[in-house]
Design brief:
The protein has 187 residues and is an alpha/beta fold. It contains six helices and six strands; from the N terminus they run E-H-E-H-H-E-H-E-E-H-E-H.
Length: 187
């Protein structure tokens, strides 16, 4: 399966390379573009400054160009990347399989039918309240999507990145185990 991976606001960091390697070891072909042209951050403040310096619309345009050029079977994103993945899928209508780590985008957009979504979100999460997640899940399900929302009590927002304070090894391993099984089921 061809998987396009979009990084978080922190940039294309070692955790994204490790995630790509994990999926490649499972037999997938992975492409993780650098939407920041080499810049990375080590704090949330710097990450948000990087995101804002590029701009949300420019990031969406870059993500759309990557999808157009690479034609993946699955879009997978981390935090900001998860939001971009969902926006790309809504705008392009394809591919129909999404994996969202650490975030979602708003649910009040026209949704393409027949999507499969797997989302991994901390509980609680500073960037997605329980109410927002419930509304998001319901909107996609009403549109005919198959949605699996997995929550990780006590984990921090970016719980899969071992270089950040939010890292939670048990939650990260659980998320990756379920993701690899979900990907394999779609082959």
């Amino acid at each position: 399966m061809r998987i396009l991976v979009l990084h978080s606001a922190y940039g294309l960091r070692p955790a994204i390379h490790a995630a790509s390697s994990r999926m490649e070891a499972a037999g997938h072909v992975v492409h993780a573009p650098d939407l920041y042209d080499g810049a990375t951050a080590d704090t949330l403040e710097r990450a948000l400054a990087l995101r804002d310096a590029v701009g949300r619309e420019a990031l969406l345009d870059r993500a759309l160009a990557e999808v157009e050029a690479w034609r993946p079977d699955v879009l997978l994103g981390f935090s900001l990347g998860a939001s971009l993945v969902q926006r790309v899928a809504v705008r392009r209508g394809a591919p129909p399989r999404l994996v969202l780590f650490h975030g979602i985008a708003e649910s009040d957009v026209q949704l393409p039918p027949r999507m499969d979504l797997l989302a991994h979100v901390a509980q609680p999460d500073d960037f997605a309240s329980d109410e927002e997640l419930a509304a998001w899940r319901q909107a996609f399900m009403r549109a005919g999507a198959r949605v699996e929302l997995r929550r990780y009590p006590g984990a921090g927002h970016l719980f899969t990145d071992p270089d950040l304070p939010d890292f939670d090894e048990a939650a990260a391993e659980s998320a990756w185990d379920s993701t690899l099984r979900w990907l394999a089921a779609g082959d």
